[in-house]
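Page 42, continued from yesterday. The earlier attempt failed because a stray header line got pasted into the input along with the sequence. Redoing it now with the clean sequence only.
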Amino acid sequence: MLTAWLKGPTEIHLWHGVADRAQERDVNLICFSGGIPHWHQQFEAQKNILFDLAGEYNVNGLLVWANILSHTLDRDNFKVFCQHYAPLPMISMGMLLPSLPSIRIDMLGGMRKLLSHLIEVHGRRRIAFLRGLEISQDAEDRYQAYCETLAEYGLPLDPALVQPGDFRRSSGTAAIEQLVDIQRTPFDALVSANDNMAIGAMQALQTRGVRIPEDIVVAGFDDIEETRAIVPSLTTIRAPWYQLGSQSVDLILSRLAGEPLPDEILLSTELVYRRSCGCQPLISAEPRTSPGDSRAVLPIPVNSRGASIIDSQTRLEAFLTAGLAAAISIPGLNEVWTRQLVNDFLSDVYSNEKASNHFLRTLGDGLDQIPSGAQVIEWQTVLEVFRSSPAGLFPTSKEHLKALDLIAGAYAAVGEIAHRRQLAQRLEVENQTDRLNRIVQSMATTYDMNALMQLLADELPGLGIQSCFLSLYAEQGNN
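This time it went through. C-alpha cells are written below.
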C-alpha cells in the first residue's frame, strides 16, 4: 500500500480496513508511507524516497491511495506517478483513473445530501463554502456538488461566500477572518470540504460571539473523532473509509487471480445529524406511552387523594428543590441552574406535547460547559434526585411515566457527554504531542537565530507557553 501518512483519523480508519482484511485473507501487507509527493512542508518531500522502495522485486501488487497522494499532483501527473510501478497490478483508492480499476467514495452524492438538508430542513439560503486544495479531486468533487446543488435550488453562486482552504484547521480560521472581519459578508450557514476546516471555522465564529446553530449552522465532511468531542457536536458526512480499505484488498487479490473487475466501485456516504445544524436533540429515551395509548393506565401508585395538578406540581417542585440543594457541591450546579432544571423538568412532565425536551436541552447545554468527563459523571448524583421522586407526587401514571422517560434520557445524555469530554481530552493530548514533535523537528534543522526565534514565537503559544528562556552554548568542547 502506498500512502502519504498514517497519522490522521481518516488515514487510520482506512489503514485498519486494509490491515484487517489482509489478515483475514492471509496476505502479507507492506505499507510505504512516503509523504505528500513534492510537498515542501514538514519535510514531506524528503520522505518521498520511501516510494522508491516498492517494486516488482518485493511486492506482487499495489494499493495506491490516490485521495491523499494527489494533493499535490493533478490527474496527469498522478498517472505518471503510477506508471513508475508498471507492470505491477494496481488498484486506485479514491480516484477514478481510466487505466486502473478504481474504488472511491461518492463525495458528490454525500455533499448534495448535506446541502439539501440545510436548504430544505433549515431554510438556509446564504451558504458559505470552504474549499480544500484545488488540485485534490476529493475537494473538487465536494465543491462541484456545492455549485450544482445551489443551481438545483435556484440559489445564486456568490464568489464572496467561497473561501480557499488546505484541509487544515488554520485555513478554517483564516476563512472566517476573511468572511467576517474583512469582507463582512452575511451568511447563515457554513459548509466545509472537510471536518478539520469546519472545526477551525466554528471555533473562530464562537470567539466572535456567534451562536451555533442559532445564528449560523456549520457542517463538515468525513466524520473524524473530533466531530463528536467539540461543542456543539458537528453535523457531517460519514465516509466509509474502513470499507474502502477492506474492499481494496479484495480487488487487488481478484486482480492477481486474473478475475474480471469493474472499472469503478462507488461507495455511498451517510449524513450524520448533530447539534451544529440544530436538528439533533440530545439523547432521549423512546416514550413508552403516548397520551392516547390504552396502556397509559398501569398499576403504578399515584396520588391517592386525587390532588389537583397544581398541588402535585407544587409538592414535586418542593421535593426536587430540596434534594438538589443537598447536591449543590456538584461541579456546575448552582441555584440558578437548580431552578431552571426543576422548571424545565416540570414543564416537560406536564406538557401535552408528545416530545418536549426542554429538560434534556437545558441539561445538555450546561454539561457542555464542564471540561472534565469525570465531573460530568458526578451529575448522576443530581439525576438520582429526580429518579427518587415518589410516584405519589404525580397526579396520574401518565406523568410518572413521562418523568421516568426523561430521567432515562438524562442518564444517557450524561454518559454521552462524559464520553465526549474524555475524548476531547485525549485528542487534545494527541494534538499537543503532534505540535511538539513538529516544533522539535523544525528546531533540529533551523540554524538561523532569527528564524529560530520566529519559530518559537509562532508555535509555543499553541502549547500554552507564553514565555521562555533560550539557552545558547557557545563554547567548543565535549559538554
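Notes: Confidence is low (pLDDT under 50) at residues 284-307.
Reminder to self: strip header lines before submitting.
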